Request: fold
Amino acid sequence: MLNSEILNNVLENKIISRQDIMEIYQNAVEDSSELFSVAQNLRKRFKKDSVTFSKKAFFNIVNLCKDTCSYCTYKAEPDEKKLSLMSKQQILELLQLAKKYRCVEALFVTGERPEQKYQEARDWLKENGFKSTAEYLIHASELSLELGLFPHTNAGNLNLEEMRELKKTNVSMGIMLENVSERLTEKGMPHYLAASKRPKARLEVLENSGKLGIPMTTGLLVGIGETAEEIIDSILAIKQLHQKYGNIQEVILQNFQPKPDTIMKNTPSADEKYFKTIVALSRIIMPEMNIQIPPNLSPKSYQSFLSVGINDWGGISPLTPDFVNPEFSWPEIDKVDENSRNAGFELKCRFPIYPEFFSFVSKELRDKMSVIENGEGLVKEEYWR
Ligand code: SF4
Reply:
């Protein structure tokens, strides 16, 4: 029996209110032990003793972006060394290499509609024979599938038609909600210069993914100056979408880390205790959700998040850097395996789509997956190890 009546209610599957969640949060500021233990209890109840990851290659297709988020170091300007404009040949070569490394996922990432702002992006599209970044992504996804790698595209605010096309080849797609706070889009705030990060725009993309039945990964960036109410409302917004469409397959909780070349370079990293509290709250609000933290962003302590409610490490690449967080290299898969085991969990490799969502994708995609799929709907050990 716990001291907190609300947390007892959570364990008994009773519905709790926003006010209750706020109270859990406030109590956790003083003492988080009961919250953490309830989150862990739910995690074990619904996700058992395993933790998953996706073996991926990160395709930095184009990092020009029409927006500017104050924390982003991914975005490049045309004269910068980090500029990436992948040619069809480069994409093919990286796909072939990824296959050699026995990656399962081809993660395709772009900036937000670069062709709207940059002539360089328009020229690049033309040289490769495409009219838009989305069209290029459709081509890259087809190529990826042909080689037996499963595409997962995260290209910002795609429209309904673009997503409908990509659904044919992508087993899942992704877009970070980041936060639903309008306040964070005001002058001086992280999303002021990023129209695509307006909560209404992001929620619309997620709504469209629901209408199209696309297994969707979304998530929050934690520690960018949000209030507790704002982050709780963001978790609740994701929950609401999932209740409506049933297609949110996972929630990534990403802890903010300042980047030297950004406006937020002097903002401190997300506090670890606060971050853990948000992770545990997410588990309590969505007990059956797949909840992920990227291990590279908590290099010394990621395994300790296994005791506050997470059940997934996200994509880990044995061959490409994390272009969104270039200063944080991926841990080696063997090391993650060892650390997970030491914490009492078995590491398993999943597809970019979780088994619970297989009914959302076509028979053609399922047939391709079956070549390397085991009886649990995960990737055969002999393939990924
Ligand atoms: S986070 Fe995305 S939308 Fe924001 S500046 Fe970076 S690439 Fe552009």
Residues 15-384 form a domain with the TIM Barrel fold (CATH 3.20.20.70). The beta strands are 50-62, 105-110, 150-154, 172-174, 216-222, 248-255, 290-292, 312-316, 346-349. The chain has one domain: 15-384. The first helix runs from residue 5 to 11.
